[in-house]
Design goal:
Layout (H helix, E strand, L loop, with lengths): L24 H14 L2 H13 L1 E3 H8 L3 H14 L2 E6 L2 E6 L2 H26 L4
Antiparallel strand pairs: 1-3, 2-3
Helix pairs in contact: 3-4
């Protein structure tokens, strides 16, 4: 997959899902592949660490998520294969950064959804009659 330059504009432009045609089977499969790679707690934590710090080395990321550098490196490879993170050599170390700002936006939206679902679940469970 070719590497993309980091986008500095809003994610994917102003087009909303309501203004698009129904996803084709190929588009749905591609979207499912993206969600499959992102549906991993370690990868999500690595992405969040990169959102916070902009750029980190494998050892810094490993310390942030309390994992061995080799395990972190394997997870970073999956994110790199998808084109979400990129790497650059700095002396003897390799630094990783977020390439695609859509990933940051997706993390923010997912956190919002999780918090809303949790809040609704709490209020629903708290209002049940005994």
């Amino acid at each position: 997959m070719p590497k993309r330059a980091m986008s500095t504009s809003a994610c994917c432009g102003p087009a909303s899902m309501t203004n698009r045609s129904l996803l084709s089977p190929i588009q749905a499969g591609g979207l499912a592949a993206v969600f499959k790679v992102l549906a991993n707690d370690t990868r999500l934590r690595l992405l969040h660490a990169l959102v916070i710090s902009k750029e980190l080395g494998v050892n810094d990321l490993a310390n942030a998520v309390a994992m061995k550098p080799q395990a972190v490196s394997n997870q970073l490879q999956r994110l790199s294969d998808l084109g979400i993170v990129s790497s650059r050599r700095l002396g003897k170390s390799i630094r990783y950064s977020l390439v695609d700002l859509c990933a940051r936006s997706l993390l923010e939206q997912a956190m919002c959804l999780m918090e809303e679902v949790t809040a609704r679940g709490s209020s629903t469970h708290g209002n049940t009659a005994s």
